[in-house]
Amino acid sequence: MDRPNEIGDNPRTTRWGHDNAMAQGTVQVTHTGTSRWRRRTGEYASLAAALEAAADGDVLTVAPGTYRENLVVHRAVTLRGSEGAQGSVRIAPVDGVPLTVRASAVVQDLHVEGQDAAAPAVLVEEGTPELLGLRVVTRSASGIEVRGSARPTVRRCSVDNPAGVGIVVLDGGGGVFEECEVVSAGQAGVAVRSGAHPRLERCRIHHAAGSGLTATGEGSSLEAVGCEVYEVRGSGVQVTGRATAHMTDCDVHRTTGDGVTLDTDAVLTLADCRIHEIPENAVDLRSRSVLTLTRTTVRQFGRNGLSVWDPGTRVDANQCEIFDSTGDYPAVWVSDGATAVLDSCRVHDVPDALFVLDRGSRADVVDSDLSQVRNTAVSVSDGATAQLDDCRIRDAATGAWFRDHGSGGTLNNCTLDGNRTGVIVTKGADPTIERCTVDSPSEAGVYVSAGGRGSFLDCRVTGSTGYGFHVIDGCRTTLRKCRTERCARGGYEFADGGPDTAYDSGPLVEDCTSDESGGLTPPAAPEPVVQTVSHSPGLLGSIPGQRSTEQEPLIAGAGPPEPTRTSKAVLGELDALVGLDSVKREVRALTDMIEVGRRRRQAGLKAASVKRHLVFTGSPGTGKTTVARLYGEILASLGVLDKGHLVEVSRVDLVGEHIGSTAIRTQEAFQRAHGGVLFIDEAYALSPEDAGRDFGKEAIDTLVKLMEDQRDAVVVIVAGYTAEMERFLSVNPGVASRFSRTITFGDYGPEELLRIVEQQADEHEYRLAPGAAEALTQYFTAIPKGPAFGNGRTARQTFEAMVERHASRVAQVADPSTDDLTLLYAEDLPELP
C-alpha cells in the first residue's frame, strides 16, 4: 500500500481569493475508485487542498478543528466530519460563503459559521447533493440557500441565523428538506421565491423575526408535510404573488401576527393541519387568493378564525373545526365580495360565528354546526348573501340575523335550538327561510322589524318563552305553512309600525297554524286599517298574537291615533278592561297628580315634580302593553307628551353585536319614541345574571343618560316578570332612581278570564249556552298556571278553540238555526293542556 501523502503546512491562496489559515486538524482523502493510481489517497492539512486532490466518489474525512476556508465542492465527493465527533468540525471563514456545493456530493456532520451579511452560509447551486446533519450557526444573509437547477436532499440540519433568512430556495431551485430545524431567523424562517419549489418534511421553524414559511412569486410553490411553525414574530405562513403551497399535518401556533396570510392570487391547501394560539387572524386571505382546508382545526385566535376579503377571494373548508376564540370578533368574516364555503364544519365557543358583509360577498354553509355563540351565529349585511343547508345552530344570542336592504339568502332545512332569538330580519333584508325549526328560544323564535321582509315557508317554532313569530313595524313578511307550538307569549304577534306605515303593509299569512289556535288568515284586501293589537285568528278572520294578550280594539286609520280623546275618555277605556283594579288605581292617581300639577302651573303656582317613568311587573298577558299605550295617550291629552304613541322594544332592538353599536341602536329606539312612550319589554334581559362581557350594560347606561337629557320628551316604561324586574332594579340602582313607581299586574282569576271570553263572544256575535259559563270557570280554575300560562291570551285562545270545535260540530248540521250558529256549549271547550 502506498504511504499517504502529507500536505505541507504552508498556506496557499485558493481560487476564491481568500488566504486559508492552517487547519487545526487534517483531512483524510480515501480514494474509492478502481484505478491503480492512488495519488489522491492521503492526509491534507487544508480542506481546499483535499478537495483539489479528490475526485468523484472520494471520501473526505475531516479531523476536528476550525477551518477558516471558503469551500467549493465541485465534484461528487463525500465530505464529512469525524465519526463520533459531530459538530467538532467548524467551517468558519472571515467572510464570503463558507460552503458552496456545485455537484451531487454528500456533505455531512459539519458545523458551518458565516459572518457575511451579503452572502449565504451554505450555497447549493447545482446537482442533487445530500446535506446531512449540518449545523449552521451564522449571521449571514441566509443560512442555507438553494438556487437554479439544484435539487438537494437536506436531512437533520439546523439553521441558527438571527441576522437573515433561515432557509431560502429561489430561481427555480427545489429539493427536499427532512427533519430540519430553523432555530432562529432574523427574517423569514423559510423563504421560497422566483419559481422555486421545495418540499419540507417533518421540519420545525421557530423564533423567526419574519414569517415562518413564505412563498411568493408566480411559479413558486411550497409543500410541507408534518411540519411545525411557532414562536414567530409575524405571520406563521405567508403565500403571496401567485405562489402556491400545500401543507399536510402541520402545526402553526404562537405567532405575533396572523397564523396564515394569503395575498394576490395566492393558492394554499391545508389538510389535517392545526392553527392555534394566534393573537390576530388565524387565516387571512384577500386579493383573489384561494384557500382549501380539509380536516383542519383553528382555535384560540384573537381576531377572526377565517378572514376572507375582496372579489375572487375564496375559501373552501371541509370537515374543519373553528373554536375557542380569545377575542371579540366573528370566527368567520367574509367581506368585499369574497366567498366562503363551509361543508361539514363545526364553529363553536366564539363571540360570533359567521359574518358576511358587502354586496357580492357570499357564504355557503352545508351540514355544519354553529354552537356556543355569545352573540350572533350568522350575520348578513350590506347586500351580502348567505345560504345554509341542513345546518344546526345552537346556544347563540341570535341564530341568524339578516340586517339590511339587499341582504338575504336562504336557510334550508336548518335547526335553531336554544338560542335567545332564532331569526332576526331588519331594515329591508329579504331572506328565504324554508323547512326550518326554531326550538326553545328564550325570546322570539322569529323577529322582524324596521322594514325587514323575508319569506318563511313550512317553518316551525316550538317551546318559545316569548313569541313564535313576532313581526312589527308593518313589515311585509310572508308566512306560509308555518306552525308554532308551546310559545309562552303567543304563536304569532303582528304589530303596526306607526304613523309612517303604508296602509297595505303587514305580513302575508297563508295556511299557518298553532297549537293555541286554528289556521291563520291574512288581513283582508288592502284597506287603510292598521293592526295595532292582538285579535283572534283562524275562523274569526283576523290576525292573532299582538304584543302580549291585552284586550285592544282594532283602530282604523293610517297609524296610531292622534291624541284627540280627553284623558277622561281614555281612562274610561282603561276602566272597561277586565280586572286590573290596582293598576287602574295607580294610573288614575298618577294622572290626577299630573293634571293638578298642570292646573297649578296655569295658575302661577308651584307644581310638584312628578317622575313619569314607570316599572310594570307581572306575568305575560296581564295587560301591560295595553296600559302603556293608554298611559301614553293620557299624557298626550294632558299636554305632557307631543304624540303619546307607543314604541315597543326588547333587548334585541337595543343591544348590538360589538362595542359602540349598542349605544347607537338604543339612541335610535329613543328617537323613534320621541314625543311618546318607549316600552321595554322583558327589560331584565339587559342585565342577565351571568352578564360577563354582555353589552346590555351599555344599553342601560345609554338609557339612563337619555332619560335624564330628554326627560320631558320621552316616557320610559320597563316591564317584565316581577322577580326578574326586582333583580334588575337592584343590580342597576342608577336605573331604579329614574322611575317614579312600580305597578304590579296580577294574574287574572277564573272569573276574570270568563269575563274576557264573554267579551270575545259578544264581539264576534256568539253566546254561551246554559252551563258553558260554569264549565269555563272550572276550566280556568284547573288550567296549569306555570310559565306558559298566558292570562288574557289564554282566555282568547280558549274562546278561539271553542269557535273551532263549534264550527266542526255545526258543519255537520244540514240546516242550522240561529242558535246552532251562535251558541257555544261546554263540550266545545278544548282539553286541558
TrEMBL record:
It comes from the Bacteria. This is Right-handed parallel beta-helix repeat-containing protein. It holds the Pfam family AAA_lid_6. Residues 539-562 are annotated as: Disordered. The keyword Hydrolase does not apply. Residues 610-749 form the AAA+ ATPase domain. InterPro entries: AAA+_ATPase (IPR003593), AAA_lid_6 (IPR041627), ATPase_AAA_core (IPR003959), Beta_helix (IPR039448), Carb-bd_sugar_hydrolysis-dom (IPR006633), CbxX/CfxQ (IPR000641), CbxX/CfxQ_RuBisCO_ESX (IPR050773), P-loop_NTPase (IPR027417). Belongs to the CbxX/CfxQ family.
